[in-house]
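Checklist before submission:
- one chain only
- standard amino acids only
- sequence pasted in full

Submission:
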Amino acid sequence: MVLVGRESDAEFLAVSRILRRIGITVLGIDPDGDSGCALGFDVSTGLITVGDLRMRPTVVWARHGLSMDSTTGSACDGSPFGASALDRFARVSRAEFIDQLARTATVCVPRRRPGLLEQLRDAARLGIATPRTLVGVDAAAAAAALTGPRIVVKALGSHFVESGPGLLTGVFAEVLDRAELLDRSEPAGPPMVFQEYVEHQRELRVYYVHGELHAYAVAKSSPAEPWLSPAAVRVRAVRPPDAVLRAARTLAEAWELHYCAFDFLLRAGEPAGEPVFLEANLNGDWRWFETAAGDPRVTHAAVRMLRALHRRESAGDGAGIDLLSFLCG
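Returned file contents:
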């Protein structure tokens, strides 16, 4: 199988170690690796080549891709690429290659990537509560259309911006007073998400892994605290209410997902305890939550998922000693 992620990807490092110990070949591809490396694909045979290694992947899991740069291309007057343009072209070409390569596998995780707007629309259609949400470039206009004393402002897509491979700058969500936003007279900025703040009794991160559900309760003072002050965040493994489990399973099945990290709030007001869906992260990290809670259940579930998918797609992979039960408990 093929795992597409950076060399420092803690989730894939943990999963790969166990998979190799139980005899499953794992090829790791760093999407930001050297674009000149001998990575290739034979369309007629379906074989991936990396140097002298040739393999037909049973499963491809691509958690993180490249930062795509749409400004690549030749100058309008036909003049040659500059060095920086060539570099951008190489990076985008590699990203496109890896994305298409992943989709040639019989099993690609994920097959679909619904964005936030689609997620919220589908959740509401399926009878799952969501915050009142607007997307726009004018904060004052959005605040005027929403109600409630506080508003959450966050990025529409990823809240990380990469100035270079692995060099991250966070654009974190903020909880702001509605009155403050109403008074803003700033020029229009990039499209942002504006949501009415939901008073809640608990925040949950719920992992769906090939039918299994594992959850952690998260207590923090601000949305950015896990990145800016991680030691102040309290995390513990919990069994969430059945309504949360049903909502997560319903969404995962609707989007035909093998893996996803869901964020829910349990409403404090009426109806008390109602799960409110915030978003689904198809790349969602889990090792930080496991470490903070001292609970490795998601890593073990991810290994079970990959082993099951691999065995299903591997011809002639017979029964043998089940080392996975021994290694994962």
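Reviewer check: Residues 66-81, 317-323 have pLDDT under 50 and may be disordered.
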